[in-house]
Amino acid sequence: MILVNTDYITGKEFDMLGLVQGATIQSKHIGKDIGAGLKSIVGGELAGYTEMMIDARNIATERMIQMAEKLGADAVINVRFTTSAVTPGAAEVMAYGTAVKFK
Fold this sequence. Notes:
This is UPF0145 protein CPRO_14970. Belongs to the UPF0145 family. The protein has helices at residues 30-42, 47-70, and strands at residues 2-3, 14-27, 75-87, 90-102. By secondary structure, it is α+β, with helices and mostly antiparallel strands. The protein has a single domain (2-102), classed as Hypothetical protein apc22750. Chain B (Translation Initiation Factor IF3, 2-Layer Sandwich), CATH 3.30.110. A four-stranded mixed sheet has the order 1-3-4-2. Strand 3 (75-87) and strand 4 (90-102) form a beta hairpin.
């Protein structure tokens, strides 16, 4: 599956199949939350949250790809990600784009 954040793929003509998306809500356990709170006092990367967001993006992307495959897509164009805080320590990540079929 080809994923691009542009509205074209060089050298390819395609038909649009429709919007596809994938989402997940992820959180860290209380121990990681406490560690992140302490880290925020001294500054620096909150590695536990970075890891959580990487995992969440990967899950959301895989779910978007699965939806595109069900439509028979060859690629997803205009891929975008969005995030939102659901509760303290938990975030939703959504991946979305337009599924296309090559001519």
